[in-house]
Write a structure and sequence with these properties.
Elements: H1 2-14, E1 28-36, E2 42-50, E3 56-64, E4 67-73, E5 82-88, E6 95-98, E7 105-113, E8 116-124
Parallel strand pairs: 1-7
Antiparallel strand pairs: 1-4, 2-3, 2-5, 5-6, 7-8
């Protein structure tokens, strides 16, 4: 339960700090972190698509040990409306988060558990600070 309290605190702390920081019609995924709430290691499958398109811009598989430390995903997505989908590899159902109705810059947490994946988000300071992420957008 501690993990959920920590993530909830991060969300509350980030809200309002960046409201309206972008003039885009979607939220910008600044960072993506995969978490594991299971007591044993899990392989999480990740798929990122442009929202409204069926062609992935990224697909990958990540081995994640149990515990609070997450596995950060290198910036492999464009600064566009996205559909981020994830699932533990032992389950068939994908769980999805879309960014087309959000705003600002986000950290996205995808937490694998026995029933699938839950997404949590927190706002971060805009613009994207890493030159390695969205480099063609001047970030």
């Amino acid at each position: 339960m501690y993990r959920r309290q920590l993530l909830a605190s991060a969300v509350v702390a980030g809200i309002g700090a960046t409201a309206g920081c972008l003039d885009a019609d979607h939220a910008t995924v600044q960072r993506l972190v995969l978490l594991n709430a299971r007591e044993e290691p899990v392989t999480t499958e990740l798929r990122i698509e442009r929202d409204g398109a069926d062609e992935p811009v990224y697909e990958g598989s990540y081995e994640i040990g149990p515990g609070l430390d997450g596995v950060p995903v290198d910036c492999v997505w464009p600064d566009e409306p996205l559909r981020v989908s994830a699932r533990p590899d032992d389950l068939e159902e994908w769980h999805t988060l879309t960014t087309d109705d959000g705003e600002g810059c986000l950290i996205v947490y995808a937490e694998s558990h026995d029933d699938g994946v839950s997404f949590f988000t927190a706002s971060e300071e805009c613009p994207v600070r890493s030159a390695d992420c969205h480099a063609d957008d001047g970030g």
